[in-house]
Structures are given as C-alpha cells and as structure tokens.
Amino acid sequence: MQLTELCERYDERLRTDAFSEIDASENGLQVGSEKEIEHAAFAVDAAKETINRAAEADADVLCVHHGLSWGGFDRLTGRTYARVAALIENDLALYVSHLPLDSHPELGNAAGVADHLELEGRKPFGAYGGETIGLSGRTPTSDSAAGLEERLSELETGNQGVQLLDFGPETIDTVAVVTGSGTDWLSEAADTGMDALVTGEGKQQVYHEAKEAGITVALAGHYATETFGPRSLQSLAAEWDLETTWIAAPTSI
Predict the structure, then answer these.
(1) Which of 101, 152, 175, 215 is an S-S bond match for 97, by CB 3.0 to 4.6 Å?
(2) What's the CATH superfamily of 3-98?
C-alpha cells in the first residue's frame, strides 16, 4: 500500500477535514513522503522512545494520537529537532489523529472507554467548535462510584491508578466520557443529568466544581483513556493486510 492511500483512508474514516479549523494539532501526515509501506506501528505519543522503538521494529510509518506539530513549527530545535531527525534518519513517516480520533463514535478513544464500560444508548457529548469529542450513555446495571473506579482500574493506568471524586449520587446510571484532559466538560455533564464524568486527568478547580455540582468525576489517566483510538487504527491496518506493531509507553499521567 502507498503511504498516501493509508493516510487518505484514515482521513476519510475519521473525518479529519471537519476538525481542521478547531484542532491545534496538524492532523494527517505530519512527516514523510510518498513511499510503499508494509509495516505500521501505533502508539499514543510521538516521542523519542516510540519513534526509536518503531524504527527498531522496522516499521514504515508510526501512527499516533499526539503528534509533533501543534499549529506548525516555528523552529526545528531541541527535542522537536531530535524527534524529526529520528523520523527522517529511519525513513519513518508520522501520521497523527488528535480530535478526530477522540470524536469518532466507533473508532475513537471515548468510544473505546464506553465499550469498556458497556454503556448503552450512547449519544454525542463534549461540544467543541461545532463538533463533539466524547460520548454519554447509561450503565447496563446501576453501579456505585467504587464499581466504576474498579472497572476503570483495568485500563493501562500505570502507577497512577484511578483518582475518584465521589460527589455524585449513590448509584451511577449515566456516564459521560471525554478522554485525555476533559474536565472542562464537567458543566455539560451536570447540565445533561450525568451521574459521572470519566476523563483522563484533571485540574485543581475540578474538585470544588464537582462537589458543588453533585457529580462524580473519575480520572483514569490521560494515557490510559487514549490507547483505544490508536488501537482501532491498528486493527484497520491489519484488515488492510499491513503488518502492525503496538508500542506501549504508559506515562502514569
């Protein structure tokens, strides 16, 4: 398969163009030129570690959620230079999907967390620039905050574990999911009658905001909640007869 064909297939499935005006990430092919590819590697972050491990696996392209270009490069120096240099030296292309991969109702990160929690009756959630980047739904059976925490602890949380702000009702029936850093959507969760908001990491003020809103917040880890999207892209690549490699690099954040 040609590199451009892989990128075009992903961009079409993920509706990449719809996020061009609202996402700081330069989604799509960030580094690379046209070539034949046989082996694709997948990771959450484009970092020196994941780039080197993809090169060691003899991959032709590394596909990630967090790329290198956020609004373009002003200068190629320091860590950015080292990462780009490692890609070029190893003839390793870099494909990136940030908000499009958060948003997708089947392939996305929020969809993966919702699958893990077996949420039913799902609806788009997490309004952002005319799009939505999360999902909401109902638990198959009423659960407690502790039960929700236990389910989320099964994710790749590293050494962090799940941080629980248990300020919601005794039973959890409705859950909103915005992966990564999603506590900015706490008000939307409260306003739409959610019992809990599941996200990755929080900000200081979310403690009092959740307490005052009477909603439970589960912080399951930025990395842990965002492995699902890249793994979905890996599954697609395997269906397209590419050799694939998953590169796990948990951050405990």
Answers:
(1) 101
(2) NIF3 (NGG1p interacting factor 3)-like (3.40.1390.30)
